[in-house]
Write a structure and sequence with these properties.
heterodimer, A: 220 residues, mainly alpha, 8 helices, B: 235 residues, alpha+beta, 2 domains, seven-stranded antiparallel beta sheet, 24% strand, globular
Chain lengths: 220, 235
């Protein structure tokens, strides 16, 4: 059994905040691209997907962290997948109970949260080594970062592609929607534009910090 | 992970995980998992069933204007059977106004469009033997093209008096409902396609035709069951 000395992280504000920016799953780690591109065609879909993923992250992270001393490393991936699948099934029922229209809009991507690498990545890299509370806080931070990223895509795509935000019309009747934005190519365009913006901000920050060692950290 | 290997490597053989520990872990986790899933299922089941009931009811009341109650019937080979008597099959919904008069019958049809199936609920009026309204329940047609079926007033005009008269035997439509090229509609059983969204318009025609071909013979034969005022309890 893997009872080895692990580096235990102390709970701090950074445990939560780094998921928002420094380790943002979409804009920095570029993980979970499949739901990011597929369901970010409207703001409400994006936020719902983000919240569903956050719930799975937090639930599975807490359980894995709580059981971390009882899970032998040989069967850890199988254990993590069963735990993650359990929370995905719960969230699947919950969304059906909340709204059938939302359930239809998100489609298969709710079940596909199981294979979202953000969640297995968190389980392997964090929850399996850290105590319960830091794991929960960190998962919520990563989930919030994912939700914010999806909303950044979803709001832009909905405004440009449908002329609405959360279903409310923003422009007059003469507005001709830029339909490609709610179609799959729009997802790539908007994601590309956001990545461009964030990397530009990051590089500028690095240059301002006047670090002569600085190779731009945007390799991916 | 690299730390693990360094610490464990010298004493690896005697420290191997016993099979029992692995079985215990997997068994325990499966047990917790099963428990959580069953709890979630049991808790959400009535809420989901209620959501589905409300959604169907709202769709029926929207497609049949003026309706305030509905009764569900199952379409069988032997005719219409009130739903809830253990018979499985396609459902049709008879909708009634406040005075308990039959306002229309909501029937469902599916046609394959450009990007997948298009499911439509139609309002069939048994008196004029025609389709007098429609509502798309589900589709994945391209935004800006195929989804005009829901909004284009010219197209919706097609579905306000779409002929669905039965032949003399009452077994099939005299004239099957078809979608025709934009601007070439000449008969009341034709649907004038939206220019630029022909495949989606075809799906609407196919949905209307399958719905009418399957449901209207039974509805006309068992019209007495639908108009009878004695409600059997399932609204």
């Amino acid at each position: 059994m893997a009872e080895l000395p692990k580096h235990q992280e102390d709970l701090s504000l950074d445990t939560f905040v780094r998921g928002l920016w420094k380790e943002n799953p979409v804009f920095v780690m570029l993980l979970g691209m499949c739901p990011t591109l597929a369901v970010s065609n409207s703001a409400i879909n994006a936020i719902s997907m983000g919240l569903a993923t956050t719930f799975v992250l937090a639930g599975s992270g807490a359980l894995i962290s709580g059981l971390r001393n009882w899970i032998p490393k040989q069967v850890r991936i199988a254990s993590y997948i069963v735990i993650i699948a359990t929370f995905v099934t719960i969230v699947d029922y919950a969304i059906q109970a909340i709204s059938l229209d939302l359930y239809a809009a998100l489609g298969a991507f709710i079940q596909l949260i199981v294979v979202n690498c953000i969640i297995l990545g968190r389980a392997e890299a964090y929850a399996s080594q850290q105590r319960l509370v830091p794991t929960l806080v960190n998962s919520l931070g990563i989930g919030a970062g994912f939700t914010i990223a999806l909303f950044a895509l979803g709001s832009v795509r909905e405004i440009l592609g449908s002329g609405t935000l959360f279903g409310l019309h923003l422009f007059g009747a003469g507005f001709q929607p830029w339909v490609v934005m709610v179609l799959p190519p729009g997802g790539f365009f908007v994601l590309g534009a956001w990545l461009l913006l964030f990397n530009w901000i990051k590089q500028r920050g690095e240059r301002r910090a006047d670090a002569p060692t600085g190779v731009p950290a945007n390799a991916r | 992970m690299t730390n693990d290997v360094q610490v464990e490597a010298p004493q690896a053989p005697p420290d191997a995980t016993p099979t029992f520990a692995m079985l215990r872990t997997l068994g325990g986790i499966s047990l917790i998992s099963g428990l959580l899933v069953v709890l979630a299922y049991q808790f959400t089941l009535p809420i989901i069933a209620e959501n589905q009931r409300v959604r169907t009811e709202q769709a029926v009341f929207r497609v049949v204007p003026g309706a305030v109650t509905k009764r569900d019937f199952v379409l069988t080979d032997a005719g219409l059977v009130p739903a809830g008597e253990g018979v499985q099959g396609e459902l049709i919904y008879a909708a009634y106004d406040a005075a308990d008069q039959l306002k229309g019958v909501a029937i469902t049809g599916v046609g394959n469009g450009y990007a997948g199936p298009v499911t439509v609920l139609f309002n069939y009026d048994p008196a004029c033997q025609c389709i007098v309204g429609s509502k798309i329940l589900q589709m994945t047609e391209t935004p800006g093209f195929g989804d005009k079926m829901e909004t284009d007033p010219e197209f919706l005009e097609n579905l306000k008096a779409l002929d669905a008269k039965l032949n003399a035997d009452g077994t099939a439509l005299i004239n099957p409902i078809v979608t025709v090229k934009h601007g070439t509609k000449t008969h009341p059983w034709q649907i004038d396609a939206i220019s630029g969204a022909t495949l989606s318009s075809n799906a609407m025609g196919k949905a209307a035709n399958t719905a009418a071909q399957r449901a209207t013979p039974a509805i006309q034969r068992d019209l007495a069951k639908l108009t009878a005022a004695n409600h059997t309890g399932q609204d």
